[in-house]
Design brief:
This protein folds into two domains: about 1-100, Rna Polymerase Sigma Factor, Chain: A (Orthogonal Bundle); about 140-204, Orthogonal Bundle (Arc Repressor Mutant, subunit A), CATH 1.10.10. The chain has helices spanning about 5-20, 25-45, 50, 55-70, 80-100, 125-135, 135-150, 155-165, 170-175, 180-200. It is mainly alpha-helical and about 200 residues long.
Length: about 200
């Protein structure tokens, strides 16, 4: 049994315990998912340069883990893949909230004079003047993106969750979803086309 199979088996056991009312299962779930979620948090943090300037991967992971712990008190995922997709979404929500926190004229990031060229006004760097004057379109695009993902047909969304949110390759996704790689490729293509159409060809 390889690592992905072992993880899926262990998480399935935790989900059974969680459904039976064992609150301690939430802590075990966090232990099992930390390594995978740290890799995902690191990868996704690079898509938020303004957040990356002020936050470390472990900061994002810690807060996202707290979100997941709270979510599991109310939501009982039906499978390991549902759980991992839920966990990955907590990272995205944390990153979006951090991006909002560090955006705007009153945020610390908007008034800190680092990386300013000699001779420029260090009290308010030019890029932050522009940021203060216009909405953060990147955050809006991310929000629209996640809304569009949530609207995908269930089968396509499962594949998209596995490949994009969880970072699985298509072979692993096929095993987790109990379908062929050909089916995964087809659903992945359908999901990407649907997202392009929903977002007018603009994806984050």
């Amino acid at each position: 049994m390889d690592t992905d199979d072992t993880l899926a088996s262990d998480l399935a056991d935790c989900l059974d315990r969680l459904a039976a009312g064992d609150a301690a299962a939430r802590d075990r779930i966090l232990e099992l998912t930390q390594a995978r979620l740290r890799v995902l948090a690191h990868r996704l943090l690079h898509q938020f340069p303004q957040v990356r300037r002020w936050e470390e991967t472990d900061d994002v992971l810690q807060n996202a883990s707290l979100r997941l712990h709270r979510a599991l008190a109310e939501v009982h995922p039906g499978s390991a893949r549902d759980l991992l997709a839920l966990a990955a979404r907590q990272i995205h929500r944390e990153l979006i909230d951090l991006a909002r926190k560090h955006a705007g004229p009153r945020a610390y990031g908007g008034n800190h004079g680092t990386n300013v060229a000699p001779g420029e006004d260090r009290s308010f760097p030019r890029q932050h003047v522009e940021l203060a004057a216009t909405p953060d379109e990147g955050i809006d695009r991310w929000t629209a993106f996640h809304d569009a993902v949530s609207s995908l047909p269930a089968a396509d969304r499962e594949v998209f969750d596995c490949v994009w949110y969880m970072g699985c390759n298509q072979k692993t996704a096929a095993r987790l979803l109990a379908c062929s790689e050909r089916t995964v490729k087809s659903r992945w293509r359908n999901a990407r086309n649907a997202l392009r159409a929903a977002l007018d060809e603009e994806t984050p």
